[in-house]
Design a protein that fits this description.
The chain is an all-alpha fold and about 280 residues long. The strands form two sheets. A two-stranded antiparallel ribbon has the order 1-4. A two-stranded antiparallel ribbon has the order 2-3. The protein is built from 13 helices and four strands.
Length: about 280
């Protein structure tokens, strides 16, 4: 089946409960496949047929029902992200109101009250997350290992584990980068067509987003990441490219520490520094 937000989940859970094999495919993969079929009419029926044909032609991985703990953590972290976005919007509204010639004091009071409410909700969600983590010693130990990476805090570790279901279907670092949308796409044909390499962004947006602030912290406080960042900036002259490379590197490190059950090793970063093709 095709992943459709949360609307495919009930049937997926039902089929899994009744011992059926289930494969869930990202919509962009189905869309790209349908272009090769040259369908002239796009309807629910033709789309269903295309999905069925895709499943018959390809060897797909079976979907694994999310761990109950990771599922609950995913719901909480995504709810928190929505609250953070809403709070940012309200703060911008307050700034705009204060910039007017004659600000409306009652509007400002309501918006300030909304900020306090959102802050209290975020605090409550963080407390719920902490309770879940503390109830699971194995999960707590995993998070402690992951947070030895510079810039990676407990919340980031929880988001990564929740969004990947504990790396359940991740086989290697390349697959992880692709799942997060941090894989590089390059279009080149002969000598006339040569597009700039860019990250695909066709992956888990929440996972990709969770790496932004940790990458900023890592390049500021860790000498290894600072050196890699400076080298990439001097080579390409584009800070965001270098920062994206650091984001991918951090995500890969989290995966390595999870799989190897080890703590962060600075020498590992030196020996496996970001390769030029990654940016």
């Amino acid at each position: 089946m095709e992943a459709t937000g949360v609307y495919h989940q009930k049937i997926a859970y039902y089929l899994d409960k009744n011992k059926h094999d289930v494969s869930i495919v990202l919509p962009n993969k189905i869309s790209n496949y349908m272009r090769t079929l040259e369908l002239k009419t796009i309807t629910d029926k033709s789309c269903s047929q295309a999905i069925a044909q895709f499943g018959l032609e390809r060897k797909l991985d079976n979907w694994v029902k999310p761990n109950d703990v990771y599922k609950e953590l995913q719901q909480l972290t995504r709810e928190r992200d929505q609250i953070v976005q809403e709070r940012s919007t309200v703060k911008n509204q307050i700034h705009a109101e204060n910039s007017e010639a004659e600000p409306n004091e009652k509007s400002l009071a309501r918006m300030t009250s909304r900020i306090k409410f959102l802050n209290s909700q975020e605090k409550e969600i963080k407390e719920d997350i902490a309770v879940i983590v503390n109830k699971n010693p194995d999960l707590h130990q995993i998070i402690n290992r992951i947070t030895t990476i510079p810039g990676v805090g407990a919340l980031t570790a929880v988001i990564v584990l929740a969004e990947t279901n504990g790396f359940e279907l991740i086989r290697n670092k390349s697959q992880l980068a692709s799942y997060a949308g941090l894989d590089v796409r390059e279009k080149q044909s002969g000598t006339s067509v040569k597009g700039k390499p860019r990250i695909s962004k066709k992956g888990n947006r929440n996972l990709r987003k969770s790496m932004h602030l940790p990458s900023l912290t890592a390049v500021k406080w860790d000498e290894n990441f600072k050196e890699i960042y400076a080298r990439l900036v001097s080579k390409h002259g584009i800070k965001m490219k270098a920062l994206v490379a650091i984001q991918r590197k951090l995500l890969e490190l989290i995966y390595v520490l999870f799989k190897n059950e080890t703590n962060y090793d600075k020498q590992y970063v030196i020996k496996n520094s970001v390769q030029t093709h990654m940016v």
